[in-house]
């Protein structure tokens, strides 16, 4: 795969979610009923721009698998896309869905924390068979043209071999990170905006991501397959989160397992 990682949907503006308190606040004449209800219970239904957002389960089919995800867990906080595509959205650091209605009013700052999780059914084919095309046609040769670097965050980085005569265009290729399973097959493939070209653009605090200058945010596309369900996971997130790639994978797999309602269907077994 060449060029910067691609994304189906860009970040959108939304408002910072108000924290729920242990005790209900006293009514105030300066706060309308809708905002007051949100302060008391951030998971309560919320009307925004004429649409009601809720946490009610909404069905989604990914191949033969059926899921009942809470509406606010979907990327658009509504449900699957019109074409049936399923994309979820969680926010770092808790990796949980935003409160209902936040999608329509999201701030840029909290948009940095967005992790999109697209689900695709690939069946019980070997994980490597799905991941290999992500690297591009002739992926084995492409990988051979790169040089394995010392492990970083438990990943093996593969860098363009400038000593082998890589041209300027190749030098702009994304950085690759790979995890291999037993036998050497690909298990995880992550492609990020090249660090030698694009700075992170963010600084990670304990619970915040803050802009650190530059004209863009470096991003990563993270591909893996949940072998148990036969579902491929495609995640997009700010590159500064790469250090937590294992936690991101675990969160995606947990969501698949928690919300699947037909995990024992026999007609899609090998």
Order of strands across the biggest sheet? 5-6-14-13-10-9-8-7
Number of domains: 1
Unreliable stretches: 1-31
Mean model confidence by pLDDT: 80
In quaternary terms, these chains amount to single chain
Largest beta-sheet details? 8 strands, antiparallel
What percentage of the residues does DSSP assign to strands (E)?
25-35%
User: Measured on Cα atoms, how large is the radius of gyration?
Assistant: 20 Å
- Termini distance? 30 Å
Give me the count of strands. Answer: 14
Shape: globular
Number of helices: 6
Order of helices and strands: HEEEEEHEHHEEHEEEEEEH
**Helix/strand/pairing class, anyone?**
alpha+beta
The residue fraction in helices comes out at: 10-25%
Describe the structure.
With 270 residues, the chain is α+β, with helices and mostly antiparallel strands. The chain has one domain. Helices cover 17% and strands 28% of the residues. The chain is built from six helices and 14 strands. It has helices at 33-40, 108-111, 127-135, 139-144, 168-171, 245-259; strands at residues 46-48, 51-53, 57-62, 65-70, 86-91, 114-121, 146-148, 156-160, 175-180, 186-192, 202-204, 209-211, 219-226, 231-238. It has an eight-stranded antiparallel sheet, sandwiched between helices. A two-stranded antiparallel sheet has the order 1-2. Strands 3-4 form a two-stranded antiparallel ribbon. It is globular. The two termini are 30 Å apart.
């Amino acid at each position: 795969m060449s060029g910067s990682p691609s994304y189906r949907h860009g970040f959108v503006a939304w408002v910072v979610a108000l924290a729920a308190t242990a005790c209900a606040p006293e009514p105030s004449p300066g706060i309308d009923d809708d905002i007051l209800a949100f302060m008391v219970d951030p998971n309560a239904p919320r009307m925004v721009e004429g649409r009601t957002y809720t946490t009610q389960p909404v069905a989604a089919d990914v191949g033969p698998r059926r899921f009942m995800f809470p509406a606010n867990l979907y990327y658009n906080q509504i449900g699957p896309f019109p074409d049936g595509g399923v994309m979820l959205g969680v926010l770092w650091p808790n990796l949980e869905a935003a409160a209902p209605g936040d999608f329509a009013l999201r701030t840029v700052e909290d948009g940095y924390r967005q992790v999109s999780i697209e689900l695709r059914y690939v069946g019980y084919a070997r994980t490597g068979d799905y991941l290999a095309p992500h690297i591009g046609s002739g992926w084995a040769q492409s990988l051979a043209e790169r040089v394995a670097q010392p492990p970083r965050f438990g990943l093996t980085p593969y860098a363009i071999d400038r000593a082998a005569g890589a041209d300027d265009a190749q030098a702009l290729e994304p950085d690759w990170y790979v995890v291999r399973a037993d036998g050497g097959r690909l298990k995880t493939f992550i492609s990020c905006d090249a660090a030698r070209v694009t700075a992170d653009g963010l600084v990670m605090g304990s619970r915040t991501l803050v802009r650190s200058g530059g004209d863009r945010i470096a991003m990563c596309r993270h591909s893996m397959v949940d072998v148990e369900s036969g579902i491929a996971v495609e995640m997009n997130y700010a590159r500064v989160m790469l250090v937590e790639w294992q936690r991101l994978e675990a969160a995606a797999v947990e969501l698949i397992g928690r919300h699947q309602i037909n995990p024992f269907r026999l007609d899609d077994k090998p």
